[in-house]
Specification:
The complex is a heterodimer of chains A (about 140) and B (about 80). Chain A is an alpha+beta fold and about 140 residues long. Chain A is built from three helices and ten strands, in the order βαββββαβββαββ. Chain B is of the alpha+beta class and about 80 residues long. A five-stranded mixed β-sheet of chain B has the order 2-1-5-3-4. Classes of the chains: A alpha+beta (about 140), B alpha+beta (about 80). Chains A and B meet through strand 5, helix 2, helix 3 and strand 9 of A and helix 1 of B.
């Protein structure tokens, strides 16, 4: 299996090296997105993620397939968390491994950038006195 | 017609799933559906974008809707 695609309640960042490790890979690149405590000078208490899971998984598989087609990759990982996440919690992991570093760096960037544009996952920022669906309004 | 709502769309209509009869005039296409929703809930017009998924695939405005389709309203996504 050259791709691992998951939507989970709790993201485990400890397994990704083993998941991407491959005898023909000389490079592994991983991006982890995490909860930041400040947005536009306001204190974020937590983020709440929800998803249209069946479609999100489909879109994540498409992303992985596009990356595997475009770059010479041995392994691809895309995982996203749902539910309430606190400051410093990991919320997304994308990664790729390849013979040389250029391919996995480029693929990793593509995976996170495209995930943010196409995968049906929504994030609500919880502030002290209000909550806001991110990007909902212009 | 059964519709699924997520994110801010769920807040706008107040439910994650609604059976809507649109006064007996069911929308025939994705474009008709978007117009009908915006008429019924003006808040949809204020969003940065509004997409529709039919059977868990993004659907262009000209896609025709069938009564047994799974239709989801997709407000601007914000994963990552």
């Amino acid at each position: 299996m050259n791709k691992i695609i998951e939507i989970v309640k709790e993201l485990d960042t400890n397994t990704v090296y083993q998941e991407l490790s491959h005898p023909q890979s000389g490079g592994i690149c991983v991006f982890v997105g995490s909860v930041r405590e400040i947005t536009n000078n306001e204190q974020v208490m937590a983020l709440e993620f929800e998803t249209y899971e069946s479609m999100a998984l489909k879109e994540m598989h498409k992303l992985a397939d596009v990356a595997l087609e475009k770059w010479n990759l041995n392994k691809v990982v895309i995982k996203h968390a749902v539910g309430k996440k606190d400051v410093q919690d990991p919320v997304v992991i994308v990664g790729a491994s390849s013979a040389h570093r250029t391919a996995c760096f480029e693929a990793c960037r593509f995976l996170i950038d495209t995930l943010k544009e196409t995968v049906p996952i929504w994030k609500k920022e919880m502030f002290k006195n209000k909550s806001v669906w991110v990007s909902a309004h212009p | 017609m059964d519709l699924l709502f997520f994110g801010i769309a769920k807040d706008i209509v107040g439910a994650s799933q609604i059976k809507m009869d649109f006064g007996g005039k069911l929308p025939k296409s994705v474009s008709d559906l978007k117009s009908a929703l915006k008429d019924k809930y003006p808040e949809f017009s204020k969003l940065s974008s509004l997409a529709v998924a039919v059977n868990s695939e993004y659907a262009d405005d000209n896609v025709q809707l069938q009564s047994n389709d799974e239709v989801a309203i997709i407000p601007p996504v914000s994963g990552g």
